[in-house]
Amino acid sequence: MININDVxxxxxxxxxxxxxxxxxxxxxxxxxxxxxxxxxGSNGAGKSTLMRLMCGVYPCSGGMIxxxxxxxxxxxxxxxxxxxxxxxxxxxxxYTLKDLKNYYASYYPEFxxxxxxxxxxxxxxxxxxxxxxxxKGMKRQAVVVAALSCKTKxxxxxEAFDGxxxxxxxxxxxxxxxxxxxxxxxxxxxxxxxxEINELCDRAMLIHQGHLxxxxxxxxxxxxxxxxxxxxxxxxxxxxxxxxAGLEVMQFSRLGSVAxxxxxxxxxxxxxxLRPLSPVLLEAxxxxxxxxxxxxxxxxxxxxxxLREDK
Length: 311
Description:
- Mean pLDDT is 89; it is low at 306-311.
- This protein is 35% helix and 29% strand.
- By secondary structure, it is α/β, with parallel strands linked by helices.
- It has helices at 47-54, 76-79, 97-105, 113-122, 136-149, 166-183, 194-200, 218-223, 239-244, 267-274, 289-299, 304-310; strands spanning 2-11, 21-31, 36-41, 62-67, 70-71, 82-85, 154-158, 186-190, 203-208, 211-217, 225-231, 248-255, 258-264, 281-285.
- Strand 4 and strand 5 form a beta hairpin.
- The longest helix is centred in the middle third of the chain and has 18 residues, at 166-183.
């Protein structure tokens, strides 16, 4: 298990800035073995910072991160259980695939030449070209193959599918899942593509401006929200009426006599609270993970200033 316990990360202020920058603010998450965990968040939310802390790139300002009960920072034994695929690949520019293989084989004792050769062959990656001559998607494929070949217990992928076309995304995702299932490894992946996280992961968290919004199994997250459509006979449904009925309304709109509400809570709990109003229409629709992402950030004012400026 990876245990992220009350973690805070503060960066010193740059010249001209008045305050230090709080990248993460008391974040607590448990990542169990054998799962695929999705990191979601707005731009600059702290996803990459959290991944770097989990890999021991730098120490936490507060709190602690442990991997299998071992502190990760400045601990080679813990770091040896992790492979981190950064969102940058420029550091591999002068490497051929052979160089890449030799580099990681020297650090990871469980490195598998067989896995590396099989997967690079399957992807038809050029063996003798330097990676500076690879396309962005080919670079990403090569580094993901290296990650799988190292056979670490935990793999962290920061925007792992960036630069891949849709067909290659599917191939890489299938390849990753097959390899992970064979050895029960754990993967943590960050992405701005919420649908991708929904498809690939069984658990997810959402972070915004360094604050954790939620972290749970995806099915549990979805069951905690619903979209309700409702109409009354001879009257207009209002947000205030819904709130008086005990609903936490995240968004309210109306088209003619039909009100639409995004509410926090499952339909099995919310619908009975509205029935005493004797509606002529009352139905609940489940939300997608992407809709939950959007509404959670809208509630917190994300993008509101930009939208007001555009009007």
